């Protein structure tokens, strides 16, 4: 348990960041935002599955 | 014996409404029943335009919220430091964290979809406003969650945030360095506020119906002065939009 407490108390590095002028953002946050945009675009263009019963109507 | 006209024939064997009763319970019953058009609490049919992935993210956000609440309730059993020393606590804490990540991702995509759809059309301004309030309330709840991690991350966040809150003059009332206060805000006050706003938001969505894409006719506007009545089994469509059964799920 002491080992786990020690491990939890170690500082975790923030990770790499990218900078464009005034904008500074971590790579992790940038990846998440880009993935959300991709999911949003896919939601607009991918067809929604429908059952055979629906198509017959 | 003459038959009653079809328009006034009772459609079910339900008891007659107690319109004459003046008790507060009867009034409350009528108020709750009138919140949403009959059959719209959990409708099994929606207008055809709802058969789109963009309509999935509202209910995905709601599903994430359910996981957040359940995992949060489990976390209260072990306390805020449970996840440091117990593998089950660590697992539940991770479920809580990742459901929050999913909650915000789906909420923001839901927000994008509704923004570009101008979903405040058709008397849905309050639905839009309560959604925005739920978003900001969720930000505060997530913020207090990060403050009670009991690690260096939470120390860093709280010591940075206190300066801004002190500058705003509210540091004495909302002290981010006070772990006990932040725990109670996170597990009691803010979830109640967010939960209440979400309930109002859902009632309004069910009351007005889901917002149609720009260019599609809105069933809510085709019946003047009445709440939206998306197509339900046994009810004729109120708009030229073809009504098709849609699988349970995408509703907002």
UniProtKB/TrEMBL annotation, chain A:
Keyword vocabulary terms for this entry: Membrane, Transmembrane, Transmembrane helix
Membrane-crossing segments per the record: 20-48
Superkingdom classification of source: Bacteria
UniProt name for this protein: Uncharacterized protein
Organism: Terrabacter aerolatus
TrEMBL record, chain B:
MF annotations from Gene Ontology: oxidoreductase activity; quinol-cytochrome-c reductase activity
Gene Ontology CC, one term: membrane
Record keywords, A-Z: Membrane, Transmembrane, Transmembrane helix
Source superkingdom: Bacteria
Bilayer-spanning residue ranges: 53-83, 95-113, 125-148, 183-204
GO biological process: respiratory electron transport chain
Low complexity bias (residue ranges): 229-246
Catalysed conversion reaction: a quinol + 2 Fe(III)-[cytochrome c](out) = a quinone + 2 Fe(II)-[cytochrome c](out) + 2 H(+)(out)
Chain residue ranges for the region called Disordered: 1-21, 214-252
Cofactor(s) of this protein: heme
Keyword Transmembrane part of the UniProt annotation: yes
EC number: 7.1.1.8
Keyword Membrane: yes
UniProt-listed InterPro entries: Cyt_b/b6_N (IPR005797), Cytb/b6-like_sf (IPR027387), Di-haem_cyt_TM (IPR016174)
Cytochrome b/b6 N-terminal region profile domain span: 28-214
Gene3D superfamilies: Cytochrome Bc1 Complex, Chain C
Protein name: Cytochrome bc1 complex cytochrome b subunit
Species for this entry: Terrabacter aerolatus
């Amino acid at each position: 348990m002491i080992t786990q407490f020690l491990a939890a108390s170690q500082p975790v590095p923030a990770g790499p960041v990218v900078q464009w002028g005034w904008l500074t953002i971590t790579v992790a946050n940038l990846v998440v935002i880009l993935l959300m945009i991709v999911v949003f675009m896919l939601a607009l263009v991918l067809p929604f599955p429908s059952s055979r019963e629906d198509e017959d109507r | 014996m003459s038959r009653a006209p079809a328009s006034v024939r009772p459609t079910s064997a339900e008891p007659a409404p107690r319109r004459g009763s003046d008790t507060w319970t009867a009034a409350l019953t009528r108020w709750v029943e009138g919140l949403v058009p009959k059959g719209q609490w959990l409708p099994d049919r929606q207008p055809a335009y709802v058969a789109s992935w963009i309509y999935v993210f509202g209910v995905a956000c709601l599903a994430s919220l359910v996981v957040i609440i359940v995992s949060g309730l489990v976390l209260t059993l072990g306390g805020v430091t449970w996840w440091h020393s117990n593998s089950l606590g660590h697992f539940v804490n991770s479920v809580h964290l990742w459901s929050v990540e999913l909650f915000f991702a789906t909420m923001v995509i839901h927000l994008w979809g509704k923004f570009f759809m101008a979903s405040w059309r058709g008397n849905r301004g309050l639905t839009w406003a309560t959604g925005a309030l739920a978003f900001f309330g969720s930000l505060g709840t997530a913020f207090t969650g990060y403050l009670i991690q009991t690690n260096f991350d939470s120390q860093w966040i709280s010591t940075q945030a206190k300066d801004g809150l002190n500058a705003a003059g509210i540091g004495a009332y909302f002290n981010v360095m006070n772990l006990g206060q932040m725990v109670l805000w996170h597990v009691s006050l803010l979830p109640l506020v967010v939960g209440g706003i979400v309930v109002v938001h859902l009632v309004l969505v069910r009351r007005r119906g889901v917002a149609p894409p720009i260019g599609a006719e809105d069933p809510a506007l085709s019946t003047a002065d009445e709440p939206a009545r998306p197509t339900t089994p046994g009810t004729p469509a109120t708009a030229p939009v073809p009504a098709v059964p849609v699988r349970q799920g995408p509703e907002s």
